[in-house]
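Hey, quick one: can you model this chain's 3D structure?
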Amino acid sequence: MARGETMSQQDEQPPRVVIRDKRRIDPTSGAARVPAEQEPISARPAQGDQPDTAPEQGEQMSEQFSDTPADLADQPVGGVVTDDDATHQLAERTEDLQRVTAEYANYRRRVERDRVLVVDQAAERFAGQLFPIVDDIERARDHGDLTGAFKVVADRVLGLLEGLGVTSFGAPGDPFDPSLHEAVLHDTSPEVSEPTATTVLRPGFRRGDRVLRTAMVGVTDPESPAPVAAEPATADAPADEQPGAGPAVG
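Sure thing. Here's the predicted structure for all 250 residues.
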């Protein structure tokens, strides 16, 4: 009866799970392993000589190294990295760092350039809306109406333009410049030696080197100079080439 119970208990025990380590590289030493089918027959242990602790040792090794990285096979044999490999890797990392640094510097310059451009465009648009008001202020100043509270408002408007870096140009007596002046009147005078803006109908405005509005002026040109007299003939010139000499009669 006891023998039957013992046999039934042995039958109820779960079968032992055997895990064999088939990795081609030893995770401890890093050395390459020889597959069992390629191992010489003389080096293989006999079936009867295998110790009973081999499965347990295989289980321990499997549990201990179950988290081994998948790229362990790509590492050099013995875990040794040569100087050439290290130099090559360092050169690659340095090149990547230099490329990323250059791209970031270009990005910062592009963002700063775009930011400055947006600010300049906004300032120029706002200044352009104030130009008609400035024209009215200048006409009131010419008529002597710029007094009292109106003068205070006018000074504040002109202060806004000054704060934006906008300056006016165009005064009587300035040399005529097509890039700065818009000529609407023309006359001549012997008192000028070159085209001159003698009358300013509307001032111009610029911000730095950029012209926001040209000045509307009247231009005075110099009178046409007298024609140059013909040079007298020299003594060495032939008679037929002198002025007024007719053809020779034979």
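One thing worth noting: The longest strand covers residues 181-189.
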